[in-house]
Fold each of these.
Amino acid sequence: MATSARSAATTKRTLKGEARYEKIQDLYSGSDGCIKLCVDKLTGEKVAIKYIERGAKIDYDLKCGILNHMGLVHQHIILFKEVFLTETHLCVVMEYGAGGDVLEFVRCHGINEVQARWLFQQLIVALEHCHNMNIVLREIKLETALLDHSNWPLLKLNAFRYSKRLGFQDAESLMKPRGSPAYLAPELIDSRAMHCCSSFKATDVWECGILLYAMLFQSYPFCHSDDRKGPDQLKTVLLRTVDCKFSFPKDVPVSDECKDLICRILTHPKERITLKEIIEHPWFTKDLPQGALDMNQTLRLRKGTRLQTKKEIEKILDDASIPAT
């Protein structure tokens, strides 16, 4: 009886989802699923829908990430819309970042220090909001920072796959390394460094520093182009990271203030600058738009358009963890 009821509910959601959205084109396909650009036929708005295979891929991390994303409504965070089921996939409907990700933007257009600061300021404002909500992201990188257009772009974070809400998860789960080795913080490589870390939020700050360096120099601070590929390459990168040993390319002009900020971020956790200190740093505050620092305090946020309650979303996620038959 319970199975029949669940099937009926799933069918209803599937029909609603399929009827509401019409595919425009494929955007991405990988081992973690695919993303399609669609149009919401009720509103005419373009949305991105991520398709994730039902069953084992709907794991604890994914469920936490979706529930965390659901509660964040902010100008610099990709807006979560809803989830629905097809016979084979969980579908996550989100705001569409029409300008692609920052990695693509930097590769295609290049970026100077002024532009990098503009994007970094938006990133930090978004991260401050997440931290105010006791959510750590753990996957801040060029690919999870999206843009809403490509002309002096507005940055929107979409880094929630491994996010966790502090106080609801044990410390052990937060210490598990996630993502690319290029972004790993020393405390996630050598657990002894975590003992000096006063907050898991410091790891998000590290990732912001890696992203800023990568925007400016189109390379990663602890990955060298002349590293020999093979089993020793990863070990070499991780050793450099633990030692916080990096340098700045001499052929890219960057101000001393900017280098100072990066150096204060990409250091051992006990010495690392905090988010509050980043916001007060002279390089960060230069050309900062009026009211930017008041955004989170005054809750000057976009109106949410979430179509479901948390309870409804949790039910769909639980159903999605059952493999398709």
Amino acid sequence: MWTQRRKDSRGYKQFFLICLSHDSLVNYYKTNFQLMQHHHYSLSEIDMMMPWEREIYLSMLIDHLKEEKERQEEQNRQMARR
């Protein structure tokens, strides 16, 4: 039983290493810094996230920022027409 559990935990570690291999260490720290400074996450909140959960929140945040930028550009175009 013990060896079975141990094998499973290695599998998860390998899975997350493969899934998150696109993220460099520098990018990881820069992203954490931006989340803390601009979006008011605490470091403990970021560290407590599962790796896949962090990816989901980041993609949602990126989508939100793109929508905000588009909305602001549309607003600027409307102001320029007046």
Amino acid sequence: MLRVYFMLKGQYLKTAMEYKLNFWMMFVAGIVVRTLMMGVAFVLFQFMPTIAGFTEGEVYLIMALMFISEGICNIFFDGIWHLPALVHNGQFDMMLTRPVSPLYQLVSYEIGLQGVGVLVMGIVSLTLSAHYAGFLNFLNILLLIGFIITGALLRMSTYLVGVCTAFYSEHGGTQTMAYTMYSIGEYAKYPLIIYPGWMRGLLFSIIPFGFIGYVPVLILRNQNALLLAVALVCVTAVYLVSARWFFYRGIRNYESVGM
């Protein structure tokens, strides 16, 4: 199955790379936009030593983990964002008739080249910020790899739940819920302690982006590390199962060609 997945991604990559200028524009844009995001934190740290008790390196590390999860989702799971259009124009019918899981076909569909620049920026930022924060040792490197995996799975699961609303939309094609969840999740680029309780609750439950960057940094700081690590794994597993359930439950409501 993995062989088929990478073959499909390879074909989409060949198609996308026919327009090399477009690729380089998205690559540079991904780096520039994330650099500007980190620039906001840089300016803040010129006037204060910490943000809610988090050092400059720790805040950058939260951002880096967020960037990496976004880049991975863009490259490997970008097909999820195409579900509303596939439902609206009836192309989803083809996925249902093939002898392969429709969910597997969906995540194999398309490739988001904009994620390459985001991922590169995230990896560079992760390395520098982890070193700057004093977290760069063998054990923490293993933990960071685990955090990258759980972060990408959490983001992917959240996107999938959001786009599955297309199955229940009269006109299909809408990505409103998914974009709303993405936009709210962007607030998790900073330590969640700075937000009011209802916002923290939202980013720890319905839109669990707080588990992508904030919780991993708390674990690296050894703040209730074991409890938070167990919570991170459990939340990731629950969201993966829930997203899959939402997808297949939505298929039952699918009436073909946006009808």
Amino acid sequence: MSARANLDLSPVPVESPEPSRAQKDAGSLRRGLVVPDAPAAWRLSAFHGRVGEISGSRATATLTFAFRLVLEAQRLGEPVAWVTGLASAFYPPDVASTAVDLDALVVVRAPDVRSSARAADLLVRSGAFGLVVLDLGKEARVPRPVQARLVGLARKHHAAVVYLTEKEAERPSVGSLVSIRAEAARARRTGEQFLCEVRILKDKRRGPGWSHEEACHGPDGLH
């Protein structure tokens, strides 16, 4: 388990009269938790046709909000690809507990950031994925020509491309071509419960300043 995985949170379970298809088909790791539909502000539709970035440092919740988008994409029947480096990865049992279908999630491990960027380019270019997440970690550098291609491909295929980065809000985004950037953070509330908040630092469509927050249960490592 990576240290980063321990810092990200699974959602508070809520009752649902009819589980989604993704919840039914998830696999043996699933614990049967159900998450509410994404709120009006934090929805996959806000990222369609765009390149976005979710960043955070120290008490971060980047994976929490990234997997909200993954879950929504799966519920809509849109294939999802997750590109990550060799030193950074999510913890599968925590992800499965959020009702994400791990069997349907395409995961690509790349040796370096440049290779990750090329992999993302090929995935988006195929037109087969509604969401491609590129986990850059602290090495948040993507060659500008690749960024430009990703922007064009996202628009062409109406796909969402999301960078995940580890840095403070004051630091600049991966590049000027990033259309929407969010900072994700968490704070302990009571006992096992945390308050997760995503704050929009940049949004070329709606303008920055809006935010969303929700209560989450921490994984076993944070209890």
